[in-house]
What does this fold into?
Amino acid sequence: MSSEAPAALHYDRRRLLIASCVALVATAMTFSIRGDTLKAFGLDFQLTHEQEGYISLLGMWGFPIAILLVGPLCDTIGMGLLLRLAAVGHVAGVILTILSPSLGFPALLLANLVFGLSNGTVEAVINPLVATMYRDEKSAKLNLLHAFWPGGLIIGGLFAFAVNVAMSLPATPVAGPMTSLSWKIKWAAIAICAVVYLFLTIGQEFPHTERVEQGVSNKDMVQSAMVPGFLLLMFCMCLTAITELGPDQWVGSVLTDTVKIQGILFLVYTSGLMFVLRIFAGKFIHALSPVGMLTAAAAISALGLFALSYSFTAGTAFLAATVFGLGKAFFWPTMLGVANERYPRTGALGLAMMGAAGMIAAGLAGPGMGRIYDKGTMAAITDPDARAAVVVGDKVDAKKAGDVAAAAKAGDPKAARIADHLANANKQGAALSFRYVAVLPLAVFLIFGLMLLGMSKQGGYQAVGIEETETPGGEL
It folds into this structure.
């Protein structure tokens, strides 16, 4: 690429910001609706918790595949075309999901991969787009943009809850045609958002990325992304992404088992906290600095997750979810902001690498948490009758567990005793999955705490201009 900067384009900054926000709403809805419908998928396709985790994994891993491929393309084929392709992908994912019962479980996995690819394309475009349009306030504007991540979680969660209420579905889903219809309706809502942000981008000019506008070469971009300081930020992105997104994918299922209410409402509640906090993130950034804010967020997140893993009543779960929501609110956008402010010459590639690293790590958390969930449940099934009734090999057979629940509901006293024992085992396994994840933000706290101390000795946190050359060692 030539180092000569291209001519500036004229674009509607406000309209493009709105389109970016709506696209992020669609992306977030795939997460909250997936979390809400995991148990329904398990019933329709007869899945274990680990298999349910692979649904999340495909949705997560499609994201980094797309973001790594699409990120560099922002500089070549343009951000406008890519964002429109993401909208088409979201619609295609909805169609494939709805058709998956007749096509089989592999089709459901493929649909979640398509969603992941579309979500990754959105993330690959909107971050450099907003960083370019608001280059003097990147951390604040990226937090504002990413307020619509929890905004989308809220919209998806409330819509899912409204469908359950309208169809008179219980908090714990049971197999049947109404449950199958409900999850199809929930996923169809994502297509509406996709059409909206597609319409907002039609006929609009998009800016060149900041790196291209400033004439920074591809070689310089790659070299800037390979320094130790930037790679350390990528590692921290992995830890914060697992902390934020891993539990989000399981909170609906886990809290249904632990406190017997619709866990999607906790996701909506914590997402509401995130939305408000990110809207006003600029004030926190000014008071604490981005690195100071990340240090505090890590400590609060660890406390919230540990508390959630010991919460077996609605009241304690509500308090623990509040603490966790306060902690995780700033992780993703502030990590992106710090990376682009400290290493602006990494451009769209750097933002893509950060997002991909986070999603790969969070994708591993899906089946990982599911495996812990299953093993914890099995360890807690100590009643011989319960083991004989529902355990096949080293796992709980979903069909046999459903038969026991049906017999218990019909008044069989032995089945009722077994069902109660299984419910308690599920509660213990579910809580254990949160407890393991809670260790990760403690590591983040230590890393960012040391960074904060180092920066205080150098006069505090400072953003680096793209015209400046980062230090050879890549120090933060």
